[in-house]
Amino acid sequence: MNSRQRRGVILLLLSVLCAFGAFVGVLSVISDVNSKVGPEVTAYEIKTDVPPYTALTAGQFEKISMPKRWLSENAVTDLSEISGKIAVTRLQKGSLLQNDMIVKRPALGPGEQELAIMIDAATGVAGKIKPDSRVNIYATFAGERDGEPAQSKVIVANAKVLDVGRLTALEPDRDRSKNQATEAVPITFALTTLDAQRIAYAESFAEHVRLALIGQGGDTTIRPADRTYTLDKDQ
User: How many CA atoms lie within 13 A of 8 on its CB side?
Assistant: First the structure.
């Protein structure tokens, strides 16, 4: 083997060693990245805005992968979890689907229908009303004519609460008084058709709609004479 051949063999060996060193370096970088990021898991991204109380379907979500360490504990990783559930609040496009965004579809009895209204958080809920609570729904109306007294009426007695939504900030209405509520909570009820009409009427025309929580085991009967109140009854 002459000197030229020896130089060729040496250069070849150096090239192999450099290639091996580069390979080891790449493996080290990959290992370091994996140790920092960790394994990837499946998550689901919301494809389009989903209104509250809407039934959920697989087509509303897109499957994605992301590092497990970056995923919140209540993120949905199995789309079968949405079966039979509805959105509890508006689901924003691009957000990750999480367990606290969805609830089971409320069970309605024969002849019942589902109705949701916004209730003043300060005077109507106070954090004590939960799903399956029973409440009386009160509405206050101004006198129909000048000089007639304002009235408070029990619009619906013993209404069943199906779901209590998230606290929502309300946009100010310039046409209303300064006492207008600034925050409200969407509350869903199971109602007969007549009771649903009563609540819809009260929500549209009453000055205020309030809820009164009924204690467990309490008497839910309200006498007809007690369903309407005016101030002169106490005079």
Answer: 5
The whole-number pLDDT of residue 47 equals 92
Q: How far apart are CA 208 and CA 75, in angstroms?
A: 38
pLDDT for residue 137: 92
Same domain, yes or no, for 165 and 211?
yes
Which of 70, 104, 138 delimits the end of a domain?
Answer: 104
- Residue 4 lies inside a defined structural domain of this protein: no
- Quick check: 36 pLDDT over 60? no
Cα angle 218-224-228, degrees, rounded to a multiple of 5: 95
**Residue 91 CB burial class (10 angstroms; 0-12, 13-18, ≥19):** buried
Alpha helices, H only, the chain: 3-37, 193-205
Q: Is the pLDDT of residue 144 over 70?
A: yes
Global confidence as pTM = 0.54
Q: What is the pLDDT of residues 89-134, one digit of tens each?
A: 889 999 999 988 888 776 777 888 888 888 887 666 666 788 788 8
Number of Cβ atoms within 10 Å of the Cβ of 45: 14
The dihedral region occupied by 217, where left means phi > 0, alpha psi between -120 and 50, and beta the remainder, is left
Task: Pick left, alpha or beta for residue 131 (phi over 0 → left; psi -120 to 50 → alpha; otherwise beta).
Answer: beta
Q: Looking at the structure, do residues 182 and 230 belong to the same domain, yes or no?
A: yes
